[in-house]
Structure formats: structure tokens, C-alpha cells
Amino acid sequence: VVNDAYLREAKAFMPDYRNWNQAIAKYFTSGVPQGSRIYLNVDDDVLAHIGQNYFSGISPRGTWAEDFQLAVRQRVVDEDSIDLSRLPLTGNEPSGAAFLGAMVLAAYRMADNEVDQVSEQNYFRRFREVLNLPGHGRPLGMRPGASAEEPLWRSWNFWLKRQGFQPTARPGNGGPTKFIKYPISQSLLRAGDKERLCQLFIQQNWRTQWDASTLFAQIRYRADTLAGHLREILTGDRQRFEALAQAVHEVHEQWLADGCPSGITGNRRTLTPSPHLYSGIYRIERFFEPIYYIYPKQPRGQQLEHVQVQQGSANCTLQIERSGWYTPAWEIGQRELNNGAIYSILAPTTLKNLILPTRDFWILVPDIDNPDSGEYASWGVPSLGIPFIILCKKALLSDLNRLRSERLLQWSGEPIEIFHNSDWVELQNCMVLTEAWAGVFIGNQELFEALRPVVSLSINFSGGLRVPDLRAWLVSYPPQIKVSGFYLTVKVEVRQLINDEVAVMEHERKTDEPFSINLPSAGDYLVRVKAEDESVERLIRIIEWDQLAIQPSQQYESLQIASFQVCGSVIQERW
Amino acid sequence: MAWFMGFYCYGRSEHLVNGLTRLVQEHNLSKLVTAIRVENRTSRKAGEFYLFIGIESAGINDIPEQIESSPILKLDSLRRRIPQQFAREDIERLAPSGEDIEYMHRLRYMPIQKAADAFSFDSLTFLPQITDSSQIYKITVRHNQLLDWLSAIGRGTWETFRKACEVLELQEPRRIIRRLRLLGHIETSADGLWWSVAPTALVTTSSHSACPQFILCGRRSERLIAELQRLAAVELTPQANGLAPFCISLRGVDETQISLLVERTNISIVFAGKASARLTQVLPTLETWEELLPPISGIEPSLYEWKTADELDFRAVIPTQTGMYQMKRRSGIESVPRTIFYNQQRNRWFQGDWYGLRFLNLYYSGETLVANYAPAMNRLAIPLDQRWPEIYERALVLASGQLPTYQISNENFWWLIYEQIEPDVIQQLTSKLNVNLVEEMLYA
């Protein structure tokens, strides 16, 4: 949908609204795993990053943020008012992404005291500054919010769902701040937060190259010592933690790349993309024994298709496997798990190392879209109701047994020792059973945070005939649905999205019990689950059999017989 | 934070608990009121008891507004609150024999069960069920859908394949994947973890007609078949008993026309030639084939229980003789039996396809291996219980694009029948496999 050729062309001239719009949509969805929660977290650093990577090295007007603001202004500002009819809601592109980005930029620029007392007045003062609009309060052309910016937010959310991501932009509960909560919900770290984080790094002398979750656990542990908005977000909505951990990690990476400066000068360099790739772990069983692979993550906001890494004396080319991940690269053993590993990246030269972090545990979850494949990897936090694997050092077993005795966590069988005589064990078929984790304390806080559920309700799909490339299931073979959550019953609605939503079914269902639904024809269906005051949604796309195309991939298994290679009926001499 | 409020109560505890439960549910408080524990100590006066309410809130003694405003704490029975707050440990001490009444729903624990291997000594002989033609057609369509779907996916894990078979209600996925390999549609990795659909290929069959006949192997789609139908006479023939996708054959077309189609549609098609003869040529002798089978290193026999075809149960006896064995872990990991082969002379453990290992077992045990060939019909018969190693059988199946049929002889022996087998192919294969070739039909 977002046209690469168009973006390349845009490099040759000054980017306009459409260039920015496409670049923003691409930036926030590139290198991000499917199913991730997406925050339209536009700030000065993000705009600089987009400008450098998607357009050209130097901003035509001084800073990329200024360019961006001007492009949005030129598109939507008409004298002293805003004309949102210039951003059509139809079409395949989320035409409002850049405008909504400008709204988030205003939220990002709010000071701590403005965030503490969020008001329309405070917010729109910043928003008017972004668009260079005189006056105060909600601008002309944006009244009321329900018919001005809200349709754009809804369109952005829907576009994300269609791309396989989870939208996060939500309105407030009501009152005058209802609509400004949309942009505020998207801004993760404010300028002041970034400075406070750097102060913390200096104070704690955190010069170690941690991965995002380890760093985040360290910071959360000290959240009470931090002030203002930063403390609020570190102790607030747990659903934001994964994205927040990523944003915090970027700040830390920059601080390390700058040589760990010991003072905040006020002239903080613009955040540059990390020169490192980080690796998770991919696990599969060979003859019922687990084997683990290096599983490199793609850098967020970039689409580096081929990365060359030196592994021992060999060069290995990483290729994109799926959104957010490169293909599992090579097998690792006890040594790498114990000590972590650093591999040199040969190309592109903007990257330096591929890092497997040193960790005491790994949480390996099944593929959310293909839970039956037998593959497990560091694909994210465990989904409610879906068994996962904990690979950990034996020393953590006492903590894990404590969680089990509190009936927070369950697993099957005994811990399985891996790598003969090693310090590592696997706990299989792990499941979190409840969300009442408060009041339970274990030694390893990072493990606690990693296992503690972030949501109370989730929709899981399994079975059916899924076509991953099209993010769809085949007609007559839709997935089974299972709602997992800490409620006994939930209300399930399935609606077909044609021009409007058409109800397919509405039922009360028990949680934890898989059920099938009859989806009458090809199309997009929205599954919405409600329980008390919570609601979650997931999209199911159904396609016809004739939409199936032969997979062009050239990755074939084959049999080697002497100097011949046999692949199906094709027998070729190897050279 | 979870903590408990305590109350000194009088009356019938079950009435109070029922009333509280109703209020918690009516007021959607299950996330804040986590549990109730009733102390049932018999030493108190009749009708007196302590009751503890579990609260989830920001801090101890911080009663959430939703609870405050609900009728719960206004119940007459809860008037006498104990001034202190309690932790879970206190409750376990004060009301040790009590049972929590929980309001917060816990997820049901549902571990994943591992699937068993299809090939075992207990299912030595597979005989397809004979079904009527409409039944065969229906099963064929489902196999066809499976191959179309696999072609669109390209590559995946064994578990993905197994699940797809389950969704399409196709039984015994291990046998299905084996048949797809025989037909040149699919290939699997040596460790059986991965499958990938082979490239789309046209194989020349051993037809005697002047015009060449091709069969379609590997990746396919409805669109490809529609394109081929525009170009040539395309025939869709069900396999024996409907146990695989349609055999798609093309007549009245030559390589040049196909090349033009490839150019026009951008669909890649390989000309595989006479794949049966080519494969026959490159296949090694049985002894060399055994050497090529992937070894299994690091087997510590004492960690496993063992079983041969002649035994009913697994036993803790370490194998010493050359032969085919099933093994499973003695304890610890939930274990599914595996079939492997032990060559005592070379002290080597290795794996291979199930029928291949059985064939090797027959060979080492000195069994006479036979095949009957009718040159006039180009028809080959192999005893069902001497089925060849899979890669050799593939050479037979690719001759016609058809899986073997099953026939029973007058002596009540089952035979596998392969069609369009050229004399040169059968001479070479029987010689490589040490099979005695008899040029007559004994079974029918």
C-alpha cells in the first residue's frame, strides 16, 4: 500500500504532505512484528530519523521537524482554520497519518505540568504552535472532535488492523479531553523524560549494552525514585510497556553511542538509529530435543533486506523472514546462552554488531498467527491462554516454583535439563493463570515483569487454513476462536466489514472454550469481545481458493545423492 | 496489591458467602474482590466465625471506591470489622483449613499434547479402505486443496503440515506426506522438521504414444491449471483410493508451447524429462544408500527402552543385533517412540524412512526379496510387506505419476502394483536393491 517507488522519488525533491504521510505510515510499521501494538509516537527524533532515511541527509529548512510541520500546514491550514476535507478517508492509504502525527507531536511537546493537568486549552496551545496557528483553544475547522479528527483516528486504527497490527489510539472517557486523549495516548516519551532517563544512566553508570527488556526492568525497579511524567508512565498502563521499553532502549543506545556523556548539555544530539541488531532465540524440536537458533530482529522503522554477518569464519546473509524478524540464522549452544554473543555485521556499514544479550531466562512463545507450527521464539509477551516455554537458569527455579505455588503460573512435567550437564532448564507448557500478581514477590524482578500478564482479555485464533503472505484464511476453513481472559463469560460479536459493519453473530461465550464461526463469504470480519468495561478486537480476512498463488520462494528442501540433488521430480547435477 | 480485610461475624457463613458472591457479580467487582476465606474453627461458639475478604488495590487499607460505594461493606453481617489488615500468609495461619472462594476467574490450564508417530510396529501393514467413487472424488478434492495450500505457503514445519491435514479432515498425515514425496510434489528435510513443495515441473511419462505426455509435479494452483487447460488437453485422474491429489496429465503440447506459457504468465516451470529413468540412474546400491542415511550420534542406549517388531512391549534391554528398533525415553520428557536402525558391524545408529528401514531389516535378516514384472504390460508387482525404500519407490511412481494400487493374490498375499515401468528401469532398480526379479505375473 505504501509505495516504495514514490518514497524514493520523494528523495529528489522537498517532501510534501503525501511524502511525509507515506513515510510515517511506513516508519511505524516497518521492522515491527505482526500483531504488535502500534503507537504513532511522532516526536522530533522520529521526524529526524524519517527525514534522514526516507528523504535525504539534510533537512531543506533546518530541522526535519520544521519541514514536517510546514508540509502538514500547507496541506490542511486554510488561513486561520483547518480544512480536514483535504484528507480523504477513502482509498488504501491512511491519508491522515501525517496530520495525526502532528497532533502527537503537540502532545510530545507538552511540558510535565501540562500533562499533569491535561486540558484542551493546554493541548491546543501546543498544537497551534506546531501548525503556526494564532489564537487559542480548538482551531476552527476542528469542531467538534467527533466529526473532525476522530474519523481520521478511526481510519488510522482500521488501516493498522488490516496490516495485521494492533491499534492503540483511544479517546478519553468523555468531557472536554475526550478527543485530545487520542494524541496523548500515542506519545510515549516526552523530551523531559528522555533527559531524566539520561540522568539515570549517568547516576547508575549503566554502560552495559542491555537489551530492551533487561534495561526496562532495571528502570521500572527504580521508578519510585523518578519524577513527573516518567514515573507515571513507568508505573501506569502495562499494555504500553513493550513499546515503552523499546523507546527507552533507543535513548540508552544513543547515550552509549555518544560515549556515555556525564552531563546533560541541553543540546542533546538527535536520536540516531542504533548501530546494533539484537537477537532473540528461535526454538524448534529435532527428534523431540530442543534446538535453539540466533533469531535477529529487524531494526524498527527500517527495511534492511540483506544483512551480512560474520559467524566464525563464515559470512551469513540474513534475509527477512517476516515483519520484524530475519530468518533463524545459526544454531547456538550452552556457551552462547551463558555468555551472550556479539557477531560483526559486514554490511550494511551503518550497522556494527549483532548482539545476543546475556540473560538468565528467555520466554519463548508460539507464533500468534500459527500457534500449531511447533515453532517457539522470542516473539513477544505470552498471550493469555496459549502455552509457552521458559528457558532459564536453574537458579531461577525457586522463583518460578513460588509463582506456581501462588497459582499464578503453571507448567507441565518436571523442568527439563538441556545441553547435558548444563545450568539451563526448560519449563514446557507454561501458562499464566491469573492476573492477581500484586503482593507476590520473587527475587528476579525482570522475570516477574516478563511473566505478569499485560492484558485481561485476548482473542486467540488457531487452526483453519491460513495464508500468511495474505494475512488471511481460506473460505470454508476459518480459524477457531478462543477468548482467554480473567472473566468467566464474555460477549462476542463478529461483524463483516463491507461498507458498514454487518453483524454475523453476537453471543455470550465462556472464556477458554474454543468455538467455530460460520463466515459466509470472502471478506474482512471484525471479532470484538467485551467483558465488563474491557473490549478487544481482531480482524479475520477470508479469501477464495482462486486467490491462492504459488509461493515464489526459492527455498527448497532436497536430497543429496552423490553429485546429484533431488527435489521432487527434478534431478540436477550439483556444481 | 493484594491484602485482606477481616470481619467478626455471626450467623450461617454459607448465607453470608452466597450474598457476598451475588453482590460481587452484580457490581462487577471480581477484579477488586479477589477471594473470600471463612475461618471454620470449631472452638468458637456456634454461629461465630471470622471472614476475610481479599482486596486488590493500590495499597494496603486503600479500599477502592467501587467497593466503598457498593452495598458489600454495608451488609449487617460485616459491621464488626477487625481493625488490622492481613496478608495472604496471615490468612493461611489464621484460617488454615479454610478454602478460598475465588471471584477472579483463573484461566483453565490446557497444555499442548504431543502427537504420536504414525509409523510403528503396531501398524505394520497399511491397507487403504475401499470406498465408492464419489467418496474417492471427495477425498481427492481435499488432498488437492492441501497441495494448493502447501504450494501457496511454500515451506513450513511438520506441525503445520499435520494441522492442515487435521483441518481438511485427512487422516494419517505421515502417510500423506510420504505419498506427496513419492509423487514428486514435496520434499522434507533429513530430520523431518521441515517440508517444502518442490518446484513446478513437467515430467515426461513412459507413454508409447508419439505425442509426449507430461504429468505435473510440485507447486500448483488453480490459476496454473486454468492456464494449462487453455494450452493443452489436461486430464485430472484420481489416485488409487483418492489418497493423494489428482494426477494432472497434459497431452497435445510440446516444450516450446509450454515455454511460451512460462514467458507469458511468469510462472516458473521446470522440464524434468523422464524423471523415473533419471532417478533410477543416480540411485546408489542398497549398501551405499544405507551409508548415506543420516547417523544419530550421542545415543546412550541405557537412557531408553527398546522394542523390535517381534516384541509387544518396550524393555530396558540394550540392543546388540543389527536391525530396526523403536526406542523411547525411560523417564523425564514426555516421549513419543522413534524408529531407528542399528548396524552392529559398523556400530552405527541411523534414521531413515520407515519402509526403507524395514527393507534393510529384511535384507540383513536374509529374507528373499522378490518382484514380479510383466514386460508386455510394463507392470511391476512388489509384495506389500517388502515395500521398497521410499526414494527407490519414487522412481517407480514417477514413471506414471500414479501411486501403486493394491491387489491380493490367490495365495492371499497383498501386492503393490506399479504401472508404465520400463524394463531398463526395473532391471537397474532390482539389481541395486538385491531383489530377485521374476518376469511373470504370479499373483493374478
Care to describe what's here?
The complex is a heterodimer of chains A (575) and B (444). Chain A is of the alpha+beta class. Chain A is built from 16 helices and 28 strands. Chain A starts with a helix and ends with a strand. Chain B has 444 residues and is an alpha+beta fold. Helices cover 30% and strands 24% of the residues of chain B. In chain B, the strands form five sheets. Chain B has a five-stranded antiparallel β-sheet. Chain B has a five-stranded mixed β-sheet with strand order 11-12-10-9-13, with helices on one face. In chain B, helix 9 runs antiparallel to helix 12 (390-397). The radius of gyration of chain B is 34 Å and the shape is elongated.
SSE order and pairing:
The complex is a heterodimer of chains A (575) and B (444).
Chain A: H1 4-10, H2 17-29, E1 37-38, H3 44-55, H4 64-76, E2 77-78, E3 81-82, H5 97-108, H6 112-116, H7 120-131, H8 150-162, E4 166-167, H9 181-186, H10 191-204, H11 212-221, H12 228-234, H13 241-257, E5 276-286, E6 289-296, E7 306-311, E8 314-322, E9 325-326, E10 331-332, H14 334-339, E11 341-347, E12 353-356, E13 361-366, E14 376-377, E15 388-393, H15 397-405, E16 409-417, E17 424-432, H16 445-451, E18 457-462, E19 466-467, E20 472-474, E21 480-485, E22 489-497, E23 501-510, E24 523-531, E25 534-543, E26 559-561, E27 564-567, E28 570-573
Parallel strand pairs in A: 1-4, 5-12, 20-25
Antiparallel strand pairs in A: 2-3, 5-6, 5-14, 6-10, 7-8, 7-11, 8-9, 11-12, 13-14, 13-15, 15-17, 16-17, 18-21, 19-20, 22-23, 22-24, 24-25, 26-27, 27-28
Helix pairs in contact in A: 2-5, 5-7, 10-13, 11-13, 11-16
Chain B: E1 2-10, H1 13-26, E2 33-38, E3 48-56, H2 65-68, E4 81-86, H3 88-94, E5 100-102, H4 133-153, E6 155-157, H5 158-167, H6 173-182, E7 186-188, E8 194-197, E9 201-204, E10 214-217, H7 222-231, E11 233-237, E12 247-251, H8 255-265, E13 270-273, H9 275-282, H10 286-292, E14 304-307, E15 323-329, E16 338-343, E17 348-350, H11 354-364, E18 370-374, E19 379-383, H12 390-397, E20 405-408, E21 414-418, H13 423-433, E22 436-438
Helix pairs in contact in B: 9-12, 9-13
